[in-house]
């Protein structure tokens, strides 16, 4: 694990594990808005395999698999991943969905330039320090093939909760034991510096104002 909020990370991992244990299928069965968009974007690029980070209990991984993608889903909650595996098996999708425990503060397991698409809904807005966030995005860049795609969605700084949550260090905010970050355009542009930032789309999902980004890893000579 890199430098940064090690204690905070451990506490957040326990918090998420407990949340999934108390309420299985915490995020519901419906796919996220971002996952629906990812299907369009990845499909248009002829991609059929996806690495999902922070997959939770897998509502999006299962949706992507139903749309024909092979999905490798990771999360740092074993409880969520157990639910994901169980649901994949029940739905007969276990040949297309694999799940592995991984904390994204650690380097991503795939080798350089071996992944075509990465998807992360509501992961980058978790309790990461700015340097952990930069490392994570650099790791996604490292594992993607040239021309590979990264679709991610986060809480927007325009969400009213951004003003209501308790301000913590490093631009993080806390509420009810959860810690996260609300994203503004400056941060999105900074994280997209080594990429082609193809799409920054504000939208509403439930009560939340969100931002969805599509970024392409430049192919050499482009
Ligand atoms: C808001 S939930 C979103 C889950 C899923 N993407 C969805 O939309 O249903 C955030 C997820 O990120 C995971 N997470 C938070 N910090 C993480 C980390 N450092 N490494 C891996 N997963 C993490 C949590 O366990 C949780 O499942």
Radius of gyration (CA) equals 16 Å
CATH topology: Rossmann fold
Global morphology: globular
Secondary-structure content class: alpha/beta
Report the strand count: 10
CATH class descriptor name: Alpha Beta
- Residue stretches low in confidence (pLDDT < 50, at least 5 long) are none
What's the story with the biggest beta sheet?
7 strands, mixed
Across the major sheet, the strand order is 3-2-1-4-5-10-9
Distance between the termini: 34 Å
Portion of residues in beta strands equals: 25-35%
Q: How would you spell out the order of helices and strands?
A: HHEHEHEEHEHEEEHEE
Q: Which range best describes the helical content: under 10%, 10-25%, 25-40%, 40-55%, 55-70% or over 70%? A: 25-40%
- Number of separate structural domains: 1
What binds here, in terms of ligands, is: S-adenosylmethionine
Q: What is the average per-residue confidence, as pLDDT, rounded to a whole number? A: 95
Structural account:
The protein is α/β, with parallel strands linked by helices and 222 residues long. It has one domain (6-216): Vaccinia Virus protein VP39 (Rossmann fold). Helix content is 34%, strand content 28%. It has seven helices and ten strands. A seven-stranded mixed sheet has the order 3-2-1-4-5-10-9. The longest helix is centred in the N-terminal third of the chain and has 17 residues, at 6-22. The radius of gyration is 16 Å and the shape is globular. The termini are far apart. The mean pLDDT is 95. The structure holds S-adenosylmethionine.
């Amino acid at each position: 694990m890199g430098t940064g909020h090690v204690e905070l990370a451990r506490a957040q991992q326990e918090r998420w594990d407990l949340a999934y244990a108390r309420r299985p299928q915490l995020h519901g069965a419906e796919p996220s808005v971002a996952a629906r968009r990812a299907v369009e974007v990845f499909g248009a690029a002829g991609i059929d395999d996806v690495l999902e980070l922070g997959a939770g209990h897998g509502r999006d991984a299962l949706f992507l698999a139903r749309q024909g993608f092979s999905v490798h889903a990771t999360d740092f909650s074993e409880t969520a991943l157990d639910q994901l595996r169980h649901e994949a098996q029940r739905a007969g999708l276990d040949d297309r969905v694999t799940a592995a425990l991984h904390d994204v503060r650690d380097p991503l397991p795939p080798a350089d330039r071996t992944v075509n698409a990465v998807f992360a809904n509501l992961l980058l807005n978790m309790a990461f320090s700015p340097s952990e966030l930069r490392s994570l995005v650099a790791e996604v860049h490292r594992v993607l093939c040239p021309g590979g795609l990264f679709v991610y969605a986060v809480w927007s700084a325009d969400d009213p909760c951004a003003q209501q949550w308790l301000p913590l260090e490093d631009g993080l905010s806390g509420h009810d034991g959860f810690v996260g970050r609300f994203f503004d355009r400056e941060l999105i542009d900074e994280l997209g510096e080594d990429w082609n930032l193809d799409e920054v789309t504000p939208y509403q999902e439930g009560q939340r104002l969100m931002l969805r980004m599509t970024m392409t890893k430049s192919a050499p000579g482009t």
